[in-house]
Amino acid sequence: MNIIDGMKTKVLLFGQLAEAAAPEMEIFDVRDTDQLVQEINKRFPALSSMHYRIAVNKNLITENTTITNTTTVALLPAFSGG
Fold it and tell me: pTM here?
C-alpha cells in the first residue's frame, strides 16, 4: 500500500460485515466517507452488496463526511426496531 501522507483511519465493522471482511481495519489516505467506502469495497467486494449505516466518532451520518487521522469510523449492519 502506498502511503502518501501517512493519514490513516480506523474502521470498525460489526455483525455480518465483520464476518465478510474483518472486525477492524485501517484505511490509508482517504479524505471523506465516500472515499472510504470506495476503498473498502475495492478490498472487500462482498461488502458492496451489503446494506449498512456509517457512524463517524460514534455519530450516525447520512451524508458524506470529512474524516481525519483521529476519526474512528464504524460500519453497522442494517437493523430494524420493534
Answer: 0.84
Give yes or no for a contact between 66 and 4, defined as CB atoms under 8 angstroms apart: no
Residue 2 lies in a domain: no
Name the domain count of the chain. 1
Kindly report the length of the chain. 82
Please choose, from the candidates 68, 76, 72, 62, the residue with its C-alpha nearest in 3D space to the C-alpha of residue 32. Answer: 68
Q: Which helix (H) or strand (E) holds 43?
A: helix 33-43
Tens-place pLDDT, residues 40-69:
999 999 999 999 999 999 999 999 999 988
Query: What is the CATH classification number for the domain harbouring 15?
Result: 3.10.20.30
The answer as to whether 82 is a domain residue is no
Question: Which grid coordinates are listed for 50?
Answer: 451489503
